[in-house]
Amino acid sequence: MESAIPEHLVCPRLEPVSTPRDYQAPFPAWTARFTPLVKQVVMACFGVQAPTILGLESLAPYTKRFALADGPLYWDPAQCQDATGAHNLVAIAYWADVAAFERWRSNSGFDQWWQAPERETEAIGRFVEIVTPGQEWFETLFSSPDGVEGIAHLASGMSGVVREHGYWGSARDRLPRAQVDKLLGECGEVPSAVEAGARVRVPGRENLCLIRSGQDWSATSQQERELYVSDIQPVLRAGMDFLRDEGRSIGCRSCRLMQVLDACSGAPLEKSFGLVHFEDLARLETWARSHPTHLAIFGRFMRYTQALDFQIALRLYHEVAVIPASAQWFEYINCHGQTGLLRG
How many angstroms separate the Cα of 295 from the Cα of each of 168, 285, 301, 308? Predict the structure, then answer.
């Protein structure tokens, strides 16, 4: 086994690890490897909101520009219906270079289009949720070395089997920055959102924690698929619904359980992911370690793997980023007050 932290980001550790002594993980896992040339990435969520179901064409002002110079290296569409009943359709895009992203914003005409007064008079809502963490500020984990998703499309490859997984606190142990930083969230009141007509800009929050945690059941057999749909999906949805509706009480700022769509046809795929913002990594860890909704997910998954004798085709992954306040851009136009980071 190897460390999840790549060699070029290993440094003398000031913060303790949580890996138990003589720990042996119950199943293998891998992490995406990025070259030292990737200094800072862009994780950008471009969204549309409406009271009725949206088609992929509503994403065209974003996605047509993706094909221009300096566009994202990877993007995928997904949808959800939020707690108010509104439909939200997003394109999540990734860049391996912030300078390329900034050139794309300017040269593609995106900034001019986004800032135009006409955006405020449209019948639909629009939003951008963009974070730009450095490589030492994010980590990934995959249950299969060939199950590439999300930010891993920017990677140079996958690691060997890593040792830091399968125990509480392992996500922190995989984060290079956590070797020297407690990654504490912001204390006290944060600046209020800035409103300008129908536009609302939400200020950055120091060490905000973002997790994209996904499931792919497309390769499962009929037996495994039935077990996943009947046993795992209900508790997963219950956990995501709790974070969406009541998460403020435990430091969750936003939660969407997204259905992944085919980028050409818009048809639903057998893939989903939770897209969740916590006030900091510690709040995510506390929910994962001790809240009944996550313990139900974890317990049901362990029974699922045991019932299948650990021979599962279900693919799981996540990417976790801790983001400095200066590396965040959240802006909403014509969106209801419970959208994303708007809910405060």
Answer: 11, 12, 10, 20
- Tokens 């939003």, residue located: 127
Residue 234 lies in a domain: yes
Measured CA to CA, the distance from residue 191 to residue 215 in angstroms comes to 35
- As a whole number of angstroms, the distance between CA 340 and CA 344 comes to 9
Cα dihedral sign for 216, 219, 225, 228? negative
Residue 189's contacts (CB-CB under 8 Å, 6 or more residues apart) are: none
Alpha helices of the chain — where are they, by DSSP H?
A: 60-66, 98-107, 110-115, 170-174, 222-227, 233-246, 281-290, 292-307
Q: Which two tokens stand for residue 95?
A: 């860049």
The CATH number assigned to the domain holding 227 equals 3.30.70.100
| Residue in the structure block whose two tokens are 């949206």 | 54
Domain count, the chain: 1
Instruction: Please choose, from the candidates 31, 4, 18, 11, the residue with its C-alpha nearest in 3D space to the C-alpha of residue 282.
Output: 18
DSSP E strand boundaries for the chain: 32-33, 42-50, 74-81, 87-95, 125-131, 138-142, 157-158, 194-196, 199-202, 208-216, 252-261, 268-278, 315-323, 328-333
Q: Tell me which residue has tokens 């949808």.
A: 79
Rounded distance between C-alpha atoms, residue 76 and residue 90, angstroms: 8
- For 156, the 3-state DSSP assignment is coil
Assess whether 291 carries a catalytic annotation.
no
pLDDT tens for each residue of 17-59: 998 888 888 789 999 999 999 999 999 999 999 999 999 999 9
Instruction: Spot the catalytic one: 165, 277, 294, 318.
Output: 318
pLDDT in tens, 229-254: 999 999 999 999 999 999 999 999 99
In a domain, 45, yes or no: no
Q: Is residue 216 part of a domain?
A: yes
Residue 231 domain-assigned? yes
The yes-or-no verdict on residue 188 having pLDDT over 70 is no
Residue 31 is encoded by which pair of tokens? 């992490």
